[in-house]
Amino acid sequence: MRILVSGGSGLIGQALITTLLSEGHQIVQLVRRNTNPGALTEEFSWDPEHEIFDYKDVGSIDIAIHLNGSSIAGARWSTKRKLLIRNSRVLSTQLLSKSLGQMTNPPKLLIVASGMGFYGDRGDEPLNERSGPGNGFLADTAVEWESATKNAKKAGIRVVNARFGLIISRKGGLLKTLKIPFRFALGGQIGDGRQWWPWISLDDAVNCLCFLIKKDDISGAVNVTSPSPVRNCELTSAISNVLSKPAWFNLPKSLIKITLGQMGTETMLHSQRALPKVLLDAGFRWHYENLEEILRRELM
Description:
- This protein is α/β, with parallel strands linked by helices and 300 residues long.
- It has a domain of 207 residues: NAD(P)-binding Rossmann-like Domain (Rossmann fold).
- The strands form four sheets. It has a seven-stranded parallel sheet, sandwiched between helices. Strands 9-8-11 form a three-stranded mixed sheet.
- Strand 4, helix 3 and strand 5 form a beta-alpha-beta unit.
- Helix 1 crosses helix 7, helix 3 runs parallel beside helix 4 and helix 8 packs across helix 11.
């Protein structure tokens, strides 16, 4: 198949493209830089913020997978930063959705990334794809993000909103941030540690996307997480066990709120006990359901 991928330079995108190429698919990447004629995949430039995308040059595609989105972590959310986070998701999805719908032969499937932030802070409430949105900046952004696919739906394209949990991989994401303080024996739980953190291994996240390509009866929201969400204190305890390092340096909620503001509150303190009901019902099989098992693979 000829598969269009945006956000291919990210953690999930790189792993996905490698897998799709190994399966014999032809990959077309959308990039925001100048195209590289020597790349392993076809490349086309686009600029979603300025609504620049000459989709007619891309030609016919079978599937589109949209993984664009500026990082939500790393710094406090200024007004400018919030706008970047929102626009990089919503505007790019609107442009891609509209463009795909205008193609002479639209693709049969559009998979768009989303996130657990959709649910807001829900404590111990069990959540699945039928649960409503929560409150907060990430929840509001996710609602807009997922709604931005409406033009693709109107064109008859099957749309899947892949709500990713925390990605477990040595190559980046959560572990890259958390392992550093543990290496110096400064690791510990965040806040009271009782917030639920849904997670999934990078391998399983990629396998899930490949699964969704083949399962043409699945559309709408899909929680791309393991079936075993953990509390933050369980995660930090597992990292401590794997690295044989203490987990005594706990970060108080007050310090997180003062130093990181809303970003720290929503990304570190909010609780989402999300379960992948759609994947479970569809018979998807995870390679890693045990957190400590995947941590030993990725941290050792």
